[in-house]
Every structure is written in C-alpha cells, then in structure tokens.
Amino acid sequence: MKNLGKIFVVAVMGLTTNCWAQPTLESPSVTCHTDGTVTFSYQNEKAKEVQVDVQFAGKHSMTRDANGTWTVTLGPAAPDMYPYHFEVDGVSIMDPQCPQYFPNEGFKNSLLEIPNPNGSLAHDIKKVPHGKVEYVHYFSKSLGATNNAIVYLPPQYEKKGNDKNYPVFYLISGTTDTEEVYYKVGRMNYILDNLLAEGKAKEMIIVLPYGNPTKLLPTPPQNPMGMGDVFGNDLINDLMPYVESHYRTINDRDHRAIGGFSRGGNQGLSCGLMNLDKFSYLCSYSSFTSTNLPQVYDNAADTNSKIHLFWLGVGTDDFLYGTARDYMEFLDKKGIRSVKEYTDDKFGHTWMNAKYFLNKTLQLLFNPEASEEAMKNGQPALAATGKEQAFTPGVMARLFPRPIISPEFGDDITFRFKAPGAKEVLLESELLEKPVPMQKDADGVWSIKMPSKVTDVFKYCFVVDGVQVADPSNMYLSPDKGFKYSVCNDPAAPYNFAAMGDIPHGKVSYDLNLNVAYYFPPFENDFSLPLIRLIPAADDTMESWFKVGGADAIADKLLADGKTKPCFMMTDVFAEADFSHAKNKVYTLKASDYKTWAERRKALENLLLTLK
C-alpha cells in the first residue's frame, strides 16, 4: 500500500511544491478577524430575511446591501471549530461556499475554524508525522448486513520493517452523528498526531464505529428494541474480530479502550462495563449510562481491580449535566473509582467539549502509571445545587423531533421536505431534465414520488422558493466543492454495501496532505496490480468517486463475483501527472466525460470487467 502512494508522489513531484497544503475551514463567505470576531456573508437578492446560526453566538439577523449581499459580524469568540448554517426565509441551509460540513444523519451544518493567533490548539493540523485514516466495510452477522467504520493508524504503523502490534481505542460519536464525526469534526487523528509528536501519548489504533447501525438496513426494523443491543453485539462480535484480523493489534483487556461523546459515551460505558474482560479503559464525554448493570456496581472491589481508567467529563452548562453529575455521584456512593472533569466555557453539549475531553484522555490511555495517578487523584462529584438542567422526555422531543422520512423506498421513491411557509418547493435531480414541483400537505410537508425502477445512485436537492437545499432527512451528502447535494442510494441498487452479503471488502484511504484517495483491494500485497486513475470533475473532491461514485463498492462486488481481478484505484486530482514510469498497467477514467454518476459508475463497471 505504501508503494502505491510512493508511485503517486514521484508522479506529481513536478506539479506541486507543497505537500503540506492544509485544508481550511474558512470559506469565501466567512472572514475571521484578528480580534476574534467573524463576519458572515451570504448572497441572495430575492430573500426577504436571512439569519446565521453559529454555535458561539446563536441565531442573528443579517443585513442586506444594495447588491443582495447579507452580512453580519459576530463575536469575539474563543479560537476553535464551530458549526453554523444560514436560515433563508425560515429554511435552514448549509453555507454553499464552505467546503467543510458536519456529517450527520439529520441536521446540515457547515464548519468554521477560528485560529488561535497566540499559539496552537490541540486539533490544529501541524507539520508533524501524520497517521493514516482508512474507511472500511465488514459484514455484521449481528446486523445481517454490511456495516462501516473508520480506522486510524499511527504514523509509524506502515514504516518499513515495523511489525509492532498496537492497542486499540474504540471511539463512538453521538446521537444522529455518523462514524465520520470524530474524524471530520472531532479531529481525533490530528489530536493524536500532535500528542505523539510531543511524546504525550502512547501509539494506538483508533476505531470509529457507526453508532446507529440499524439505519443501514435495507428495511428498517419495525421494533428496534426487539433486536436487543444491536450496536453492542455488532461491536463485540463483528467489528472487533474484523479489526483484530485485519490490523496488528494487542488483543487483551489491558490494551483495549472504549468511549465516546453523548450517546456514544453511553454506548461506550455500557459495552465497557458489561465486558470488563475485554476493556480496562473507559471514557465518557458528556454522557452517562445505566445504573442497573448486573455484577458491576455492587462489587466495587472487583470492578475497580479491572479498570485502569474510568474517565468522566461534562460541561456544567450541558443539558445532560444533571444526569451526568447524578451518575458520577452514584459511582462515588458505590465505591467505584473515577476521574471527573468539568468545563464551563465550551457552550455545553458541543464538539468543542468532545475534542477537549479527547485530548485529555488520549494522554492517559494505555499508560498504566499515568492513568493510576489520575485515578488516585480523582475527586468526588460536584454537589447538587438543585438548578441542574434535567434530561427529560420533553428535552429529548425538542432536540430530536419526529423525523421526516426522505427518501423512502417502496413501490416508488418518495421525497419529503417540511417547509410550511414556502410558496414553492421543487425536486432537482441529475436524472431530471429540469426541476419538478412537489405537493404540500396540511402539515406543511412537501412530497413527490419517483419510479422505484431507478435503482441507482444519483444526486438531488430541493429548491425552496429559488434556494437549493440539501435533504435534511438524508444522511448521505455529495462531498462537492460548492453546494453539496444529497445522494439517493436505493437499497435495491446493485452495488449497495448493506445488501452485498458476507463478501471481502477493500479499504479506502484518504491522504489529506496529497489530496488523494486510494482504494486497496482485499487481501492483496502485489503492488504490480493494475492501477485505475479516477479523475474528478470540476466540482468534485477526492472523496466523490467513492462517496457518490461507489467505486470501492463496484470493485468489491465484481471481485467477489469473479468478474474482475484485483486492482488499485486512486482519485487523481493532478490529471496531467505522468505515470509513464509506473510498473503498473495504468487506466484513466475522467468523470467529466460523463453527465451523471450513473453513467460514470457504468463506465467504471465496464472498465473493471475488462480486467478479467
């Protein structure tokens, strides 16, 4: 795998002089000033009212100039990363000019980064050795479908001659988050890269599971509760065996950690405490778990002897603080040792806290001396004041209202969008010659049906009173440079991962320094295999051929069916690179030669079939 990367580096060495080009979270519509204030701008001549909603300031109205540009300056705010979005005449949209976004099953936010002029932040992208981030798929017997995860490998993992085995930290994101959030928002890889470079953390593999795996099922279960602990069963019985058979890991409880943010913290504590034969480092960020776990709390001496680190962090301004504090106090009363950390300056239940807590705990994981010292110095829970925010069913309903199902697959594909105040909502799709009108019901939900025979992947969006809007109910976004379309992926599509069954899968690795994505076939170490260069179109990114084009899914399925032979693939943003020196047989496929992703997928399929 490293050799393929070297082939590319040599090919483009004459084309680029900066391999350290860092992704920026500042867009043309956002200006960060030296005093910590931020100016937001949005162009829309027809809008009647525009607001910006940013985590450090809340929602604020913007002012329109004569050219239809809406602006507002907010802050100052502390240096950090903050999600934000615009509200245009009451409709929430991502910043169409911002390249970075918050991966989520529901809400759609862009990301803003306020740099620290006086020093560095834990999550900064620095000129230090960087680890590798791989996207993997594995068949889950617990789920009866293919699941996905992200794996971080430390910088030295693939160094020539290195046969070292590593401890593993299973790190889970929150409710409605995808497995990408602790990578793209939490920056777990850069935080650990920086700590390793400073000698402040132990080398480890980090695995990011998907916390809501039933959402991947072609037919969602009618009674998810009846399926038991699907996440826990998948993690223990499917994901862990996959990781331990595909990576060099140390497979004992002293070298496994588990934790997460929000719901992920609950899942991490529950899995960890119920499997203390497998985990000895437990971390909860802005969360808590059940106080009714058999054989755990009523045998403090035995439980304490099995846990190297029990770390709990929460903001005192978090809406979960009251319940989290109660759980901390419960542990104290039961005699269960723990480390407790509180914040009051990171806007409560936020990813500012999630990153902060992660940076703290990474310095303790797999370091028995440091973790024991922290446990010895653990303090009792803060005393209750009676004014703590309570996590009630009402709070849950406000934060997570009943979802609109879109797209919904059946005899037809139904798209829905709730906009009671909109005058017109259209469906725009790359499969349609022009946008088509949707119909509004009495609840203000607009809908339209398309024939289900369209069993493929395609991009679409809603056009609400002239404004393009990604489907807020669809977790799949096209990682475009500008406006980000939603991606419709029919479960009946021939290359849908969840329906592939128990077949081997390759890996997709993203290199942010070179701005290249690689596909490596399963079980192959022959670096003379054919290489397919996938050239993105003008508005695509290095992720597009995989996130929308499904290049890895197509290769995996055809390979499993014996219809092609193994090959490497890479998204080559340097289309003019010279590969004449490569020992591989090189094929090139340009996205710009085809109008739709369906046509691009078919072209790739045809190319792969010629490799038989």
> Would you tell me the structural class of the helices and strands?
alpha+beta
Spans of at least 5 consecutive residues with low confidence: 1-24
CATH level-two architecture of the largest domain: 3-Layer(aba) Sandwich
- Largest sheet: number of strands, sense, barrel closure: 13 strands, mixed
Fourth-level CATH superfamily of the largest domain: Alpha/Beta hydrolase fold, catalytic domain
Mean pLDDT: 90
Q: Record the strand order, biggest sheet.
A: 18-17-16-15-13-14-12-11-28-29-31-30-32
- Give the number of domains: 4
Please identify the top-level CATH class of the largest domain.
Alpha Beta
Strand content: 25-35%
The fold-level CATH name of the largest domain is Rossmann fold
Helix and strand topology:
Layout (H helix, E strand, L loop, with lengths): L1 H11 L17 E3 L5 E6 L6 E5 L3 E4 L1 E2 L4 E6 L5 E9 L2 E3 L7 E2 L6 E6 L17 E9 L4 E9 L14 E5 L8 H4 L3 H10 L7 E5 L20 H17 L9 E6 L1 H12 L6 E5 L14 H7 L2 E7 L5 H14 L4 E5 L7 H12 L5 H9 L16 H7 L8 E2 L2 E7 L6 E5 L6 E2 L1 E2 L4 E7 L5 E8 L2 E3 L16 E4 L17 E5 L4 E5 L10 E5 L8 H4 L3 H10 L7 E4 L14 E5 L6 H13 L3
Parallel strand pairs: 13-14, 13-15, 15-16, 16-17, 17-18, 30-31, 30-32
Antiparallel strand pairs: 1-2, 2-6, 3-4, 3-7, 5-6, 7-8, 7-10, 9-10, 11-12, 11-28, 12-14, 19-20, 20-24, 21-22, 21-25, 23-24, 25-26, 25-27, 28-29, 29-31
Helix pairs in contact: 3-8, 12-13
